[in-house]
Request: fold
Amino acid sequence: MIAIRGATTAEADSPEEIRGAVKELLTEIRDKNGLTAENIVCIMFSSTADITSFYPAKAAREAGFAGCPLFSSLEPPIAGSLKRCIRVMVLAETEQKPVPVYLRGAVNLRRDITKKLVVALDGPAGSGKTTAAKTLAKELNILYLDTGAMYRACALACVNAGADLSDESAVRAVIDGIDLKIEYCDGRQVTLLGGKDVSEEIRRPEISQLASKVSAYGFVRRKMVEMQRRIAATMSCVMDGRDIGTNVLPNAEHKFYVTASVEVRAKRRYDEDRAKGYNVSYNDIIREIRERDKRDSEREIAPLKCADDAVIVDTSSMTPEEAVEFIKSKIQEKI
Ligand code: DC
Reply:
């Protein structure tokens, strides 16, 4: 007899999500281990305390795994545990080596036996890549790294130091001594400059233009790219930016180029900035976006460009949810 371990996460605490997650997990365990209804001895589940709407064992029965004893238990609420996680142990009467199966967010529980997932999302300002990247990372329960925030923090550091961005040596002096840290708090990226949380400050509209300028310097990019690669080397993540698929992580298995028409992008930025209380005009934004696109895509080092092997996602007439669904379906196809 063998014992096969597995785990997955449900996107929501709803019977439909739990049914879907359990069915997917058990089907994969069955197929990967060559199990049949006859040789499964029993299936035991434990789930995190935030799953309250449905028993995984019941979902298993409904999915056709009804010929053996099934058992569900609830884990105590443990701080920091993976959200909506369902763990399973399948006992089976077979001689072969057990193949454990960890799916969705649960891949992070056992990175030693699951493949690391790195998703690169590139695209121009306002394309919807950041919204898509954040949602995707949340749903996959992996880290989200906003690389634009790092360039924004570099720009803010220059502003704080009174450095003129067209003065290369002044910028170099600031960047050489920059104390930039990216931390994660409750799944949210926190950008720390000199130990101070600048996550909000770097979103100011004028920082957008300055970030685009500072990011054109080779020495700035080298320093940031080194940090980005270090993060991707140690954990599964969704990384968004301008050069992730082409330069930072050219070997990423999942690459997307998210784009939309200039008008749609400008309207999104306008609505976002207005909602934040910034007094901006649509015409200024469209002009700035054009300027930024031009500078980001025409700069000499690592310009904004679609990688040859990236999937293009035009979000002009997509809702944010549709964009995420599309990206997820493309990732699933490859996994
Ligand atoms: O995505 P964003 O608007 O926060 O990015 C701010 C600027 O930083 C953008 O104009 C281009 C630059 N950037 C870059 O050059 N490379 C990245 N990987 C991310 C952003």
Notes: The mean pLDDT is 93. The pocket of 2'-deoxycytidine-5'-monophosphate is lined by residues 125, 147-148, 151-152, 208, 211-212, 215, 241-244, 292, 296 (CB under 6 Å).
